[in-house]
Amino acid sequence: MEIFHMKPLNYSLTIVIIIFFVSFPCFLCSLQFNATVTTSASLPLLPPLPLIPSLLNFLDQRLAEIYPIIQTFKNSITADPLNITGTWVGSDICNYKGFFCSNPPDNESATTISSIDFNGFQLAAPSLDGFIDQLPDVALFHANSNKFSGTITDNLAKLPYLYELDISNNDISGSFPIPILDMKDLSFLDLRFNSFSGLIPPEIFMKDLQVIFLNNNNFMQPIPENIGSTPALYITLASNKLTGPIPRSIGNASSTLKEILLFNNLLVGCIPYEVGFLKNAIVFDASNNQLTGPLPCSLGCLKKMEQLNLANNQLYGEVPEVLCALKNLENLSLSNNYFTKVGPTCENLIQGGVLDLRGNCISGFADQRTEEECSTFFSQPITCPYSSSLKLIPCSTSGSARSPSTNSVKASGVTKTSWVTYQATDLRHRL
Ligand SMILES: *[C@@H]1O[C@H](CO)[C@@H](O)[C@H](O)[C@H]1NC(C)=O
Ligand SMILES: *[C@@H]1O[C@H](CO)[C@@H](O)[C@H](O)[C@H]1NC(C)=O
Ligand SMILES: *[C@@H]1O[C@H](CO)[C@@H](O)[C@H](O)[C@H]1NC(C)=O
Ligand SMILES: *[C@@H]1O[C@H](CO)[C@@H](O)[C@H](O)[C@H]1NC(C)=O
Fold this sequence. Notes:
The protein is 13% helix and 17% strand. By secondary structure, the protein is α/β, with parallel strands linked by helices. It has one domain (2-25, 77-423): Alpha-Beta Horseshoe (Leucine-rich repeat, LRR (right-handed beta-alpha superhelix)), CATH 3.80.10. The longest helix has 17 residues, at 26-42. It starts with 25 loop residues before the first helix and ends in an 8-residue tail after the last helix. It holds the Pfam family LRR_1. The chain crosses the membrane at residues 12-33. This is Leucine-rich repeat-containing N-terminal plant-type domain-containing protein.
């Protein structure tokens, strides 16, 4: 999957097959194991037995040091319906289910846990504290669809190699985990489908992240003004409780941003002219908000745009012909707004099944709002700031446009699963 190759791995993820020899009396060894298994199965709340790692023979000193951390975490697990931890026994840590070994960057001849993939394991534990933050060489931590709860520890920032953190679809709460802001090499951050609340810290958009998935939490307050500083390619802020307008700075992300999901929030205000600067964007979805105003003509500069969804807002005016002329549009969803006018290029898109204008105020069109609904809406005056920018088109549109006569339909058979950010709105999806 593309995600895994966005940044070259610091070190390879080959699973090292460990051959070890038990160099001490066997009865001692099996005695210890039986004791552990009994304890964790029947009395999970007791503190771990004082297992002495020196009685086991580890491939590497680093694994010997990690062993008691894993066993302590194992003892804290309150549910394991797939019996994952049944394999977390003995010194062969590299073959524990979910753990992967390789050579750490600071010592090519050492062997350590470099990667953890608990995706879909359904493990429950009251906290990840004292676990991930104590695995000093871990570079990837993926734990989609478990039942980990608690908050995220400050010690996380001390992990020097961690660059992918996925704790999506768990029960983790609290405010945005501030330690994440201090993680130097983090490039992939996936906190979606948890119970995080409070504000999204502006610093997150100053970090060198390629992926920021924060959808389906309880984040509140306005989107930070500096969102456009982000070098991220994929951003999902959908299905939170974000308020305020779409910041004008978003246009500053023009050379990098490919996909952004803002839907199901409480966003207000007019769509800023600067959205039209996003020349590399292929997905922009701000549906189900309270956005208003006319569409800026700058949207006609979104030359790579495939999915533009602004349905279920309070947008009005004429749908700009330059927007409908974009060649790569597969889905332009403007249903349930208050648009009043379309030109021939847009009408053509409706015919082609690309443009959806149901539930608007266009006279003579089928499936529109009632006259009463429309006149009630238009009786309230709305003004947009920078209204003079609405008609500006900050790009050359010649040659790029589809002509009104091409009834080009790219939409048929295209599913949302082709886009990275829409995949992130499926709670079980593992990236
Ligand atoms: C769990 O897995 C271990 C190791 O594979 C096995 O020995 C044990 O019997 C399993 N326990 C259950 C309850 O299935
Ligand atoms: C590198 O790791 C190997 C294997 O654990 C160890 O024997 C060696 O002392 C380490 N080298 C350094 C410089 O730490
Ligand atoms: C980012 O965008 C804002 C608003 O459009 C602008 O004022 C600011 O100068 C931009 N910053 C950079 C670094 O381009
Ligand atoms: C366009 O997107 C909307 C909103 O996600 C969806 O309901 C609709 O089926 C899509 N239409 C096409 C033609 O893909």
